[in-house]
Protein 1
Amino acid sequence: MYVWGNVNAGDKAITKGTVTSLRHCYPHSEISVVSMFPRTSAQFEASSNYIRNQFPDITVLPSLPLVSRDGSLFIRALRTVLLACGLFCTPLLKRLCRSSPLLFAFEQADMVLLNAGHLLFWSDRMGQKRRILRSFILPLVVARRLGKPYGLHAQSFGPFEFSQGGYVLRRLFHYVLSKADYVSVRDSRSLTELEACFTRREIGRIAVVLDPAFYLGGRDESAASAILQNHGLERNGFLAMTVRLSRRGSYDRLPAEVAASYATKVGEFVSLWVSRTSMPVAFVCQVPRDHEDAAFILSMVPSECREKCHILGYANSPEMLIGLYANACALVGMRFHSLVFALLSAVPVLGLHYYDLGPKIDGLLRDIGCGELSFSIEDVDPEALVDAASGVVASRGVLSASIGKRLAKLRRRSERVLRSALALPVW
C-alpha cells in the first residue's frame, strides 16, 4: 500500500487510517508501506517517520524503480527499459525482484493495495498526468504481471475526460479496474462517475466505504489551544474555513480567471457572515499553499470585516487539525479531509466544491445524509451559504448526533467490506 509525503495532513491521515483498519481486521498481518519517493529523498524520510512513529513494526519501502529519480540519467533510463521489458516478460520481471526490495515485497505479498485517495481521474485542466500513470497505475500492472491480487481501497474517481488519446486511456483505466480483485469507493458519487464512463460489466462490483481517516483517534489539544490563544479565538466562538483555489502547482492548477471568480464568491460569503453575525472567521491551512489562497480571498474582503478574520497558519498533523476543529462552531470546507477531521470532533460542516476537485466532497455529505449542506461554488449564492451556515450553527447538537449515528453505521459496513473483500488469512 502507498504512503504520500509529509506536507498534506490529509494524506498522512489516509495512510494511518488504512493501517489502523487493516490491523483491526487482520491483527497479526505483516504490512509494508510503499513510499512515492526514493530512499535518498528527504521526503522519503519525512513521510516514513510519521508512519514509523505510529507503527514501529511497519516496513517502509522506497518507490518503484520506474518512479524513482535516484541515480544518473543513464541509470534511470536503464531501470525504465528493464522494468518495461519485464512487464512483457514475466521471467525477467521476477529476476528483477531479486535486486529491488519493492519488487521483492510485491512478489512475496498476499495482496497489493492501492491506498485511499483521489488518485484516478483524467481532466484536461489538471496536470501531473504522467504521475497518475507512473505512480498509481504502473504498480498495479506490475502486481498483475507477478500474478498477485490487488485492490483499490476507498478511492474517489473522476472526472474522466478522455479527449486526447481517449480510446487508449479508457482501455488502460478499464484494464486496471476490471483486473482488480477488490475495488471500493469512499463516496457514492464516485460510483456515478465510473458508471458514466464504464459499464458495470466492465468494472465489476464496487463497495462504498468510509475514508480511512475516519479511523483516527485522539487530538492535539495543547497545540490547538496555543494557536487559538495566539489569535484571541474562544471555543465555539468562531467559524472555521478551509479554501482550495489551486492557483499554483502542477497537480490541480486552476486557470487564473476561474480561481479569481471562486475567490470573489468566498470573499462575499466571509463579508456577509461577519457583517451579520460579528463572529470571527478562522482560515485553517491543511497544506502550506492554503495560506496564500486565504490571503488572496481576504484581499477582497472590506477592511472592517477583515479585522474579524484570521489565518491560523499551516497545521502539519491530523491530530492538530482535529483539535482545532473541535473548538469551532462549524466548518465551511473546500478540503475533503478537513471535513472528515471536523466530523470526527462532532462539529457540523458545510462543503464547498467545484468540478475539477471531483465528486468527493459532495459524495461524502450525501452519504452521511447531509446533501443539503453541499454547495457547488460555481452555482452557490453567498447569501444562501450564509443562511445555511447560520442554520448549521443553530442546530449543531441535533445535527452532530444524527451524523454520528450515520457514521457509526457506515464504519461497521466498511469493516465488513474490508474483511470479506480482501479475504486475507487471519492468523
Protein 2
Amino acid sequence: MNTPYHISEQNLISEQTRGRQDAQTLEDIRRSALESGACALIRNAASVRQAVSMLLTPQGREFALKTGFPSLALWRRHKENLGMEDVLIDCGQAIAEDCDFIAVGDSRIMASFSGPARLHHVVAMHGAEVEIHASNYAVVTVTAVNASVIVHDDPTAIVTVEEGGESWAR
C-alpha cells in the first residue's frame, strides 16, 4: 500500500524555496550565458533543465568549446539545482551506460555505449575525466572543455571527440 504524500506547511515552504532557487539559478545561467556571447535563445529556456539541455545541442557544445561556458564557478555555485541525474558535478567516480551526460570538475566517469539505437552526447568540462567504451556500432560525440577523454572502441563504433575547436574520430 502506498503512503500518500503528506502536504504540510514545511513541505510548502520547501517547495517555495526550491522554486525561488530554481528561478535564481536560471537567471544566473541566462545572465552568464549572454555575458559570454550566447544568442538570445537562452532567454527561451523556461526551466533550469531546459537551459542545461541546451548545452547538449550542437550549438551549445560549440559555444562551450569556444567560451568555456558554463564556468566551473557557475556549476559549483548552483550544484544543488544543476546536479541532476545526467549532470555530474564533482561526483568523484561514477559509471554511465548508454546515456547522455555532462561531467564537471572532480568527476571521473567510466561510460559504456553499445548499439546503434541513437547518437550519444557527452560533455566533459573543467577537469572532468571521462573514459569511453564504445562497441557494437555505437555512435558517440564527446565535447571536452579543459577535460580528459580516453576512448576504447571496437572497429564498429564511431567516437568523435571535439576539443578546443578541433575534432577527431576513432
Protein 3
Amino acid sequence: MPNPFARRPVNTSQSAPTERKGMDPVPEAYAGFNLPYRGVQMHGVEPTADPVATPGYPDKDVVVYEDEVPEPEPVPVRVVNREARFRRTWKADSKLYAYNAGQAFQLLPREENRVKAVVTNFNTTYEALIGASEQMADWLGGYPIGTRASSPELNTTEEIYVLIPTPAAVDVRIGYIAEYEVPIPDDE
C-alpha cells in the first residue's frame, strides 16, 4: 500500500501568455435599416417607398377645414369672493372647569368667521377631551389633550366642547386662542 503522506511529483504549469488580444469594436448604429416604432424586424410587412393608394379615397392630400367661428366679445366681470377685503384678528381666553359627572362644557360657540382655534389644557394633573359636540367629547370620539399640552390647529367654524373625564379635586383651567376673519367695509 502506498504511503498517503509521501510527496509525489507535481506538474509545473507553463507561464501564461502575456500578449492579449482586444475585442472588435461594436458599432453604435444599426446595421441596415431601422423602422420607427418597429425596430429592425419586418414583422411580415416589407417597407415600401411609395405606399399603395387606398381605394375609395382621393390620391391628393386635399384638406378641407371648417370656417372659423368668431368668438363673442368677453363680458367684463368683477371677481368677488369671501376673502376680498378682510382683516384677521384673534382672541384668547381661559376658563376654569370643574368635574361634572362626565358632562361636557361648550368652550367655543359656532362662529362663521372663525378661521382656526387652538385649545390648551393648563392643568398639570388632569387630561381633557375635546369634540365637536357633547356626545363627541368623550372617550370614544374625543381628542385627548394631555396635561400642559395644546391641540393641533382646529380649522372649524363649529362648536368645540371640553370634557374632564376623571373626577378632579380642583378646577381644571382650559384655554383657547382663536383667529377670526373680520370683513372690512368698502368705505374704509
